[in-house]
Amino acid sequence: MDKKAWVATLDSVAAISALAAAFFWFGSAWGELPPMKMYWGGAPPDDAFFVAVKKSAQMNWIAALFSGVSALFIGIASLIRR
Question: Angle CA(28)–CA(65)–CA(13) in degrees, nearest 5?
Fold first, then answer.
């Protein structure tokens, strides 16, 4: 593959990764949290609020991963352009 094709491929992957990151970040913030209940010692693993916050944190982690991939590919593409 020539230089131009590499840059186009890297740019495409970076754009798709950025869109995926946005999808997961919007998904993590979408909706309302269930009401928080008070427990002695800690919340049980099946508590609705705990489960919702855990899912949001997992989606944020995935979004950050996609964002990092996008930034990495943009950086590599910029080095190839030189």
Answer: 110
Please answer whether residues 12 and 77 qualify as being in contact, where contact means their C-beta atoms are separated by less than 8 angstroms: no
State pLDDT tens for residues 58-78. Answer: 999 999 999 999 999 999 999
> How many C-beta atoms surround the C-beta of residue 50 within 10 A?
17
Q: Helix count (H) and strand count (E) of the chain? A: 2, 0
28-32 CB contacts, 8 Å cutoff, 24+ apart? 28/55, 28/56, 28/57, 28/59, 28/60, 28/63, 29/56
* Whole-model pTM over 0.70: yes
Distance in angstroms (rounded) separating the CA atoms of residues 12 and 37? 45
The amino acid that residue 31 corresponds to is G
Whole-angstrom Cα distance, residue 44 to residue 26?
Answer: 27
Residue ranges of the domains in the chain?
Answer: 3-30+46-81
